[in-house]
Amino acid sequence: MGNFPYDANKPAAILFTVLFGLTLVLHIFQIVRARALFMLVLIIATLLQVIGYAFRYLAIINDPQLWSLIISQVFIIVSPALLAAQDYMIVGRMMSFVGPESSVISHTVITKLFVIIDIICVITQGAGTSILSGSDVPTMDQVNLGRAILIGGLVAQIVSFLIFVVIAIAFDLKAQKTIGAQLNQLRPLLTAFYISAVLIIGRSIYRAIEFGTIDFGSEDVQGYLWDHEWPFYVLDAVPILIATVLFNVVYPAAYLPKKKGVRMDGTVEEPRKHWWSKAPEKRSTATSTTTSQDIILGRV
């Protein structure tokens, strides 16, 4: 079995390397074409998946050293946290585009706060995974520490993302009242975000249960989710692939302006001196005949 407690599937590792590679190439093409630099985090997250599955294949073919397994585990586990960070940025851009009157909390505060939390989750999950995978015969103290750190990072990600989803729903409902039918032009992007959020949260719950139910104290590591390969692909690989491809199909740059701070009504939000400071007055940059589509396409 080598590096895995089961006869790991080589074609599956190759398949997901290729699939994530294809969506990565398409994302790069889309970001270059649209000059949507705010989508760079998605590129990084998808690249980590490609590398993760490529190194999973190396680990499957009984690489005598653990470095391929460690890279695979760390990259595949932390990548969804970066996808969550991209979701935060996309919703923050939507809030900015619609205007502060439709947000329960400043979009600047929300984006920075949750991205910072997500970075902490990434570091925590990576550290926990490294401790668990970094030794041929880890001590029980190392195992318990690594598992506690990893599960803590996963739970923190789940809780923070759930809170963010509640804030996003509140924004959605309030925007329907303030701008009405105009919100329909963002509806595909909001729907893509909701689906992405459900997939990422579901995957994180699976991972938390997987590591929480492992009995490292037994002679043979026990735990159904750990000892069988199909849950990994069905509950981790497939959901994250769908969450990634979603933003190929519903590409945010097609719905949001290239310039940060541009709003639906043709005004531009002046940058704040500090991200926690009061929003400055907005200034007009367009005539009354300017449409939000013009703004998105960079015509103003």
Automatic annotation (TrEMBL):
It is found in: Membrane. It is a multi-pass membrane protein. Signal peptide: none annotated. The keyword Metal-binding does not apply. It comes from the Eukaryota. GO terms for cellular component: membrane. The chain crosses the membrane at residues 12-29, 36-55, 67-88, 109-128, 148-171, 192-209, 232-254. Keywords: Membrane, Transmembrane, Transmembrane helix. Coiled coil: none annotated. PANTHER family: PROTEIN RTA1-RELATED. This is RTA1 like protein.
